[in-house]
Write a structure and sequence with these properties.
This protein is an alpha+beta fold. It contains 1 helix and 3 strands.
Length: 52
């Protein structure tokens, strides 16, 4: 059984465009893991399986 390898991204979120930003990343295969408040606002943490 193969182990899934992941790649990760952090994305700053603009409050008035959060849905559009997450929808775009989702279309590219990214899954939202968590949203945290960073020093300058909200930051989304995403992951997706790495291609072999």
């Amino acid at each position: 059984m193969a182990t899934t390898r992941w790649e990760y991204a952090t994305v700053p979120l603009i409050v008035h465009a959060t849905k559009q930003i997450l929808d775009q990343w989702g279309e590219d295969g990214w899954e939202l893991v968590q949203v945290l408040e960073g020093g300058t606002g909200l930051v989304a943490y995403l992951k997706r399986p790495r291609e072999a």
